[in-house]
What we know:
The complex is a heterodimer. Chain A has helices at about 10-15, 40-55, 75-85, 115-130, 175-185, 215-220, 260-270, 280-285, 290-295; strands at about 20, 25-30, 60, 65-75, 95-100, 100-105, 135, 140, 155-165, 195, 200-205, 225-235, 245-255. Chain A is of the alpha/beta class. Chain A folds into three domains: about 10-95, Sulfite Reductase Hemoprotein,Domain 2 (Sulfite Reductase Hemoprotein, domain 2, Alpha-Beta Complex), CATH 3.90.480; about 100-160 and about 230-295, Sulfite Reductase Hemoprotein, domain 1 (2-Layer Sandwich); about 170-220, Alpha-Beta Plaits (2-Layer Sandwich), CATH 3.30.70. In chain A, the strands form four sheets. Chain A has a five-stranded mixed beta sheet with strand order 6-8-9-12-13. Chain A has a four-stranded antiparallel beta sheet with strand order 1-2-4-3. The radius of gyration of chain A is 23 Å and the shape is elongated. Chain A starts with 7 loop residues before the first helix and ends with a helix. In chain B, about 30% of the residues lie in helices and about 35% in strands. Chain B has one domain (about 10-75): TusA-like domain (Translation Initiation Factor IF3), CATH 3.30.110.40. At the A-B interface, helix 5 and helix 6 of A face helix 2 and strand 3 of B.
Amino acid sequence: MQKKNHTDAELQELRTGGIIKQKQKDYFILRTRIPGGYLKADILKKYSVIAKKYGRDYVHISTRQGIEIPWIHINNIPKLLNDLKNLGILRGACGPRSRNLIACPGASVCRFGLVNTEELARKLDRVVFGKEVPKKFKVAISGCLNSCSKPQENDLGFLAQGEPEVDLSKCIGCTLCAKVCEKVCGRGKREPAIIMDENKRPVYRKENCFFEGDCVRVCPVNAWKVKKTGFAVYIGGRVGRFPKFGIKIANFVDEKQIPRIIKNAISCYNRIAQTQERFGEALEKQDIETIKKEIL
Amino acid sequence: MNELKVDQYLDLKGVPCPLNFVKTKLMLEGMESGSILEVLLDDGEPITNVMASVKEEGHQILKVEKIFGYWKLIIKKT
């Protein structure tokens, strides 16, 4: 085969589609994306086929819920890309683009989950993925306050919240709700949101609530229910060399608003940031109240 | 309230999570539908975790009572 020289521009073009140069000459890592980390078992098998055919019989699982396949030789890339399309494996992003959306297991299986993240991740992939940005843009969704997908460390994070309400006619006065509440609120340095009155009836004080649903989970007679769910929105989180938590800009945002908020946040990032600057860094020079209005 | 007729009894004081739930679950599996199990559990994680898990398994909780440092749970098997 004739030896080809690949220009920087060609290599850059490859990067847009999740082909990353390895330190070894002529070898590349294929980065794929798995929206929300949900993958059909049949597709998973196809990863194995690709790793055996083009790589060195192993994969690397990234922290963004993607699977990477190293040791792809440059001459095999066109054939590989064609195979990926036929097999239904989605290519990931690198360079100045938005990344794979990550999510926790969510309410379909997790006992703590307040929202179904699987469905949401599938819907949002189109809105989130592969958009041109100054550096990179990461979005995460977490189904409860446990924050397993770390929304506060992403450029844009959605954290599910659940507001509880109690049906006193069902209450048997066991005090467990107040007990779990005191523990959570204590850790969060707040007075408990649930206290028992002199008749052993729970009294709910919303202003102290963290909206994480422990009272609902523990109630033996289902007197506590989740009245409404929504999302806290965090912007500007990052890790890397100079880590910083995202800033919370909203509570109880409706699920239907999420695509719009993502679009607005990406356009805001493009407006305020210089090339190579992360969203959080650019936000440091901005008035957050103005930014809030732009995004929400 | 009428005194409930307890069919089985489990003292799980000092038994940590998740072993306390496993023992509760195994006991319930061996019982007939509609029969009553009384369980004693430590305060803290044991009572809250076992409570949530028993509920998730679909059993009915009839009574929850705090007795000094531990809890008494009355469960009706579905």
